[in-house]
Amino acid sequence: MDSADHSAYRVPTGRPFLLKEFYPKLAGVGELTGELPDPADPTEYEEIADSLYALFTVARNLAPDRNATGCEVHPKGAVDTEAPAGWGRCLLCNSYRRTGRPDVKAAPKTPRHTWAVPSPPYDHAALMQTMDQINELAADINYRSEDETFVHLADLTHTAFVIARELSRPRNSSGCAQHPGAPIDPDAPGGPQCLFCQGQARRQQAGPPTVAIRPSRPVPRYERGRPPHPPSPPTTT
Fold first, then answer.
1. pLDDT above 60 for 4
2. Which of 119, 148, 175, 229 is in the most buried spot, having the most CB atoms within 10 Å?
3. Is the peptide bond before 108 cis (omega within 30 degrees of 0)?
4. What pairs with residue 28 in β-bridges?
5. Distance between CA 158 and CA 118 in Å, rounded?
6. Which long-range contacts (CB under 8 A, 24 or more apart) does 14-22 make?
7. Distance of CA 189 to the CA centre of its chain
8. What does the alpha-carbon distance between residue 198 and residue 105 come to, in Å, rounded to a whole number?
């Protein structure tokens, strides 16, 4: 880098102080994950998830501002939840584009997150692999690094946070994706199974319940001018 380029470069405000805050937090997360057994109880991941979120907050502030719309013209605008495939997520810009293309259809699934979200499975190995990537990237970062490097660092820390957050959730004791906290039927055919799913299967096999309708009593007939019931005998005192 020559003197002209060097003099034109300006370090973003606050970046040296944020880096000074980032490295101790990263070391603290490394100590927590280094002492973590595999497998570990979900409660042991709670502190790691909290520490990773604090680390992500610093990494997010190190990176350039990333808004929900991804639009330079309307960074604080509304998000288009039905954006067509290949379009941005800015509702204002997409409204202008729809004016000339009213027949365009929405994409089947529009991402709603701003930072990287990993795909499952979320396990201990995925968390440790992501932490290794964060440590390797952080070892080569300085306050003159490119903005894309800090964006990648923020994505990695958010990925690690999501994995730790999912690992901190209570385990699925029943093995059922639909009823994770349901009791288990140990005598079910084929081995222990979810008791709620067993009940649903039995109800489907039995079909809709049949209700026996009891006929109502016929209304007593009476002649016009006569009371429907015989008069009560007078009481004597």
1. no
2. 175
3. no
4. none
5. 9
6. 14/61, 15/62, 15/143, 16/143, 18/58, 18/61, 18/62, 19/62, 19/141, 19/142, 19/143, 21/58, 22/55, 22/58, 22/59, 22/62, 22/138
7. 34
8. 42
- How far is it, in rounded angstroms, from Cα 232 to Cα 234? 6
Whether the pLDDT of residue 22 is over 90: the answer is: yes
- Of 104-113, 161-170, 202-211, the range with the highest mean pLDDT is 161-170
Residue 48 CB neighbour total at 10 angstroms: 24
Tokens of 119: 């795909």
pLDDT more than 70, % of the chain? 79
- The residue count of the chain comes to 237
Q: Where are the domains of the chain?
A: 8-66+115-171, 68-114, 177-203
pLDDT of residue 1: 46
